[in-house]
Fold:
Amino acid sequence: MQTFISCLLTGISCRALVLVALLAACFTSFLSGAGPSLAQEENSFATLEKGLVRDEEVHDQACCDRGIYSKSFDRWIQAYINGRDAEALKEWSGVLQAAKGAKSLTRLASCACTRLDFLDGADSDKLDKRGGLLPAVKAMYDSTVKLLGKDTFQAASIAHYLSDKYRGSGQYALSVLYAKEDVRSREVDRGGNDYLLWPSLMDLADKELLARDYVNCKAHTERALALGIKIHSVPAQYRCRAMLTKLKSMGVAK
Structure:
């Protein structure tokens, strides 16, 4: 009996467990005659949010792994480093087909960079002649846009990854450009009030701060805060208010 229960619990997804816990808490409050406090509501939503995000991450990782280990992935690398862009686009289509079902392609882009980074000999030289890793990530993004469309969550996820790469190289204007594409694509794909939009808005604000675009940094932080309040997300509100406090100390947020 104990083994059966253990197997049963293992088979229940993270999302189901979180929803059951949330419903149980609400039912307990109903029986006691006392409604949940604001802190309890916020904690419940934060737990639910984490559960939903974790469930999606596990699913996306499995889908991306299929793309990473596909034959098309190996052929894409060879086509790209050898400058056969039309062939590379065709092979990237095969990679996306193998990874079908993934909303976020961040893992796919990350693993592609790792593979490219470990090229050696003549292949490494060919990659260097094409400008190294950043142009390769840009090619992944451009190909994904051509194949799936600009206004998709998949394109947004690679735009976000590309934005991070540009930030790491100190190219803050380009980092902001693709962070904006990340936000815009997510808005179109999932709507402006999606619970996962605030992290992208704050990521954009962080990059605008680095680019010294303080006006837009403040505007995007305030928008993220409004969304965080609407969805009762404590982490969102804390992070946004910390940014606004920092901007105020700089004489920006007045």
